[in-house]
Each structure stands twice: as C-alpha cells, then as structure tokens.
Amino acid sequence: MTDQTNAVPAWEQRFRAARVSLPEWAEDAPDRALYVSNATGTYEVYAWDRATGDHRQVTDRPNGTTEAELSPDGAWIWWFDDTDGDEFGVWRRQPFAGGPDHEAVPGVPAAYSAGLALGRDGTVVVGTSTDDEGTTLYLRRPDGGSPEVVYHHAEYGGVGDLSLDSALLAVDHTEHGDAMHSAIRVLDLADGSTVAELDEVTGCDEPRGVACLGFAPAVGDTRLLVAHQRRGRWEPMIWDVAAGTETELKLRDEQGREFPGDLSAQWRPDARALLIEHEYEARSELFSYDLAGGVLTRLDTPRGTVSGATARPDGTVEFLWSSAAEPSAVRSTSGEVVLRAPGPVPPGSVPVEDVWVEGPGGRVHALVQRPAGEGPFPTVFEIHGGPTYHDSDSFAAGPAAWLDHGFAVVRVNYRGSTGYGQAWTDALRERVGLIELEDIGAVRAWAVDSGLADPARLVLSGGSWGGYLTLLGLGVQPEEWTLGLAAVPVADYLTAYADEMEALKSLDRTLFGGDPDEVPERWHASSPLTYVEQVKAPVYISAGVNDPRCPIRQIENYVERLEALGKVHEVYRYDAGHGSLVVDERIKQLRLEIDFVRRHLDLG
C-alpha cells in the first residue's frame, strides 16, 4: 500500500504539518496554558492543562482565531472575535475547562484591538481603536460595573500593562504624532490622574522611542521594565514610576563588549532577574540577568531564531525555536522539547547563507538559499512585510516550497528592517518604498553578478509591505524583474490611506512626514499606481476582500489600470482579511503562484 504522506509533495507537507505557538501560562496557575495551533487545518486557540496533559480546542471559526489571553487565575480564556479576518470586533471569554462563550466586557463597542490587561483582582482594561474616535481605553473595575473611559486620544496608542495590584496602568501612546517612536504614560486608576510620563520625542532633535515591557510581578512594586533607544538601538531599563528613578541596564557580552543588536527583556517570576533576548543580523540568543549582582548568563539555545520565550516559575525558560533548515518546536533550557504539534514533523529545508552587499545606505544583509544543482537559477526575491520587521534564520514553508521547485530564494533586510539599529530602521522615512528598492536592487545586482540568479528568470515577490514593494519595484525598476507576485499589497497609496485602519494611517503620516494633502508629492512618488504604465513584467496579485490593512478598493483601482493598459496580469480574491489562517487556502494561494511563475517562465 502506498504511504499517503509520501504521496503529498514535501512543500505541501510543510504547510499541512501541525504547528504550535509558544504556550502562555496563567500567572497564578502556571499549569494552565494556552497556545495557537493549525492542527485542524485552521489556526485556532487551544487550552492545555499541563498537570493532566489534556489539550482542548477553545475556538472554532471558519477563518480562524489567534488573539487570546488567560486570566491570571487561569479560570478564563479571553479571545478576540472579529468577522472573517477584518480585525474589528469584541473580546469574548469562556471557562478554561470549556463552556459557552460570552461577551467579556459588555458596553465596550466593537473596534480594532489596542490591547488587553487582566488584573489579579478582576480589574480589566480593554484598548480599542476606530477610524472616527482614535484610541480609547476602557476600565472595568473589580465590582463588575459598567466600563468607564480611562484614556482617549485621536492618535494611536494602546494598553501597556497593569501593576500587580491593579493600582497603576501603563499606556503606550503617540500623542506627539510620531507613530514610529512611542511614549509611555502611567495612570493612577483610583482617579485617572497621571503618575509619570516618559516621552523622548516631544521637543527632542533626534526622536527616540520607549515601549512598555511590563510592571514588576511583586505586590506594591512600582518598577516598570521599559525598552528605550537612547543609544541607537533597543535596550532595557527599569523605571520606578513612583520614585522617579531610571536604571539603564548597560549589558555586555562575555568579552565585555556592548551588544550590537536590539535587546528585549521580561521579568522573571521572582522580580529579581530578567530574561534577555538579543536580536541581531537575523538571529537571536537568550540570557538571564541577575539584577542584584549584575551578572549576565548565556542560556543554551541553538543557532537560529527564537520566536518567543517565557521564564517559568521553576526557573526554566521555554522558547519557540527554529532555523531555516529545521522546523520549530517549543523547547526548554532543561533540554527537553516541551510541546510539539501532533502528527508528522514537516520535512526540513536548506540552510541559509549570509550575504552582505554594499548598498547606497550601507551594507545590506541578505539571506540566500540555493536549490540542488548548478546555477544560475531562476530566483525568487521574497520581500518581507512590516516594514519594521526582518527576515530571519527561521523555518518558513513558503521559501522552502520555491527551493523544492528548483528556485533560489533571496530575502533582503532592506533599510527599514529591525535588528540592525535604529538608524537603519528609521532610514525609510519620506522616500517611502524607494529607499527599500535601492537596497533590493543592490542585492539583485550581486545575485546576477555572482552567478546565483538567472537575469532572465527573476521573480519579485512579497506580501503586505513586501507586496507593496513588489508592485512599486515592477514600475520603478521595470527592466530588472521578469515576474511579480504581490499578496495583499498597497497598490494605490492614496486610496489605501483613505480606507485603512487608523493605526496604519498614523504610521503612514509618520513615514511620509504628513498626510496626502500636506505632502502630496511624496505620496505620489511612493505609490505603485504612479508607475503602472511602466510595468513590463506579468504580475499576479492576491487580495483579501475583508483586509483592513491593505483594503481591496485600492487594489481594484490598480487592477483596473492594468486592464486598461493591456498589461499581463492575474488576480485572485479570497474571503478573508490580511492573509488567511486556513491551511488549505494558503496552499491554494501558493499553488496558484507557482503555476503562474512556471507558465510565464516556460518551465513546464
């Protein structure tokens, strides 16, 4: 009898293989945990009783669910209920052991989520964002009365954290109008008054962001762990909001050198130590930091990427790890695999090579994977979204599928990417999109000159911001690309701005230095629609009809222009939002892309 698994291509097995996220555990009931998995073919929320080993599916919706939290006592699972991926909805909750779902905080209107904080005493803070109202944070006190507005502003913000006694609330906000560099305000929930403010943007020549990482998990402790950019990268410090003191943690590696990349931190459960993550040049590593002794200890993690970590009360650290060659699993510093998804482990893939290319703004880091055989190869430039994100040495089914089909894969951490310092991330402002394309173009030239890539078979591809850069690149660099694959892209930037969710409008105003009426020439220069007449390559576009981030109307505008100009193109529309949480749908989309590329490159 034929093995059914072996009959399925390796690339499809990688998509169908079940995955799990890093489990979140309840602060006062650490044996109660929840995670997200695609075990049923759709990403949904699962409860895990670690004491009994029982796993239970919590949500079951046609388009999936990923946003959920546990109450501190582990009694309730909260999950965000939107409509078909539109990200607009309300919080619901159900008992940990199972039972009916109920609207968690009646009286809080449906909106985009701007965070959630659940206190040990029953205090709840729900963050909402709408196009008309901006950001509103609602407080429901432990007595269960009607929610009251504790914070409101037209600019984007969100829930930071509640102190352990629920007396203080930290709010991340961008009231100064710079959505790339937030500030923090701490409120006294007894009367809503401001206890402290940390703003390194207003009145500063060189804006630096700060971000809330969490209050110390100790009763009466007013220390807030904060990330800051005072030395041109993200680093942790401890801000005692009651005392008004700041303690910067100038961490050094084993050789006494400053860490070159971004550092993030979280409290260990005893509040006497921190778990530190160092992210640099597409990889990450973990450390433990003893606050009293100032001792930094490296934790044993393999070379690759940590996609999340959590310090457990027993002193161990659990982390979700993978590399480009090896699929992910939840591991522990105790040496064991804590949680692996049910079913077969997906096939591995090809390790990445690090390539550095001189670009107009400095050295550009690219991650390269080669298929079997001798080059030059047909090559897919897979461009990441964000834009403040980065490609990493981590397992991804999409690039692995192209490798299986004989393509080289190149991923570029262009200016705007994280993990290379603040200057690199902030460099894309004003000449939005065009800056990134300069870096992608420099890596393209290297790929051709080095013999890796066949210049007649170059595919520019990406989703979200990567889809935007794909359409922009096809118009700005029409001679450089053979084909384009753009998933959920920005295509007509002015219409996108009119229709997108408010949080992204705020980011766009920051990137461009004003709205379309204030700096129209910048918006025009950065919109793919401006260059549609110059497009020569056949282009494939996929779009979610409920997408609040890259809305469908602006994509239709671009497609209509392609049609009017007689440009070769295909469009696939699907009933979801900014991407799909359904495995079959993801496979269908990639199969359509592969078919499009093979036909137009005459690969049979």
TrEMBL record:
Which terms does the record give in the GO molecular function aspect? hydrolase activity
- Which stretch is the leader sequence? none
Peptidase S9 prolyl oligopeptidase catalytic domain: residues covered: 400-602
Q: Write the lineage as a comma-separated list.
A: Bacteria, Bacillati, Actinomycetota, Actinomycetes, Kitasatosporales
**Protein name in UniProt:** Dienelactone hydrolase
Which Gene3D superfamilies does this one have?
Answer: alpha/beta hydrolase, TolB, C-terminal domain
Keywords for the protein's UniProt record, in alphabetical order: Hydrolase
Q: Name one Pfam family in it.
A: Peptidase_S9
**This protein's superkingdom?**
Bacteria
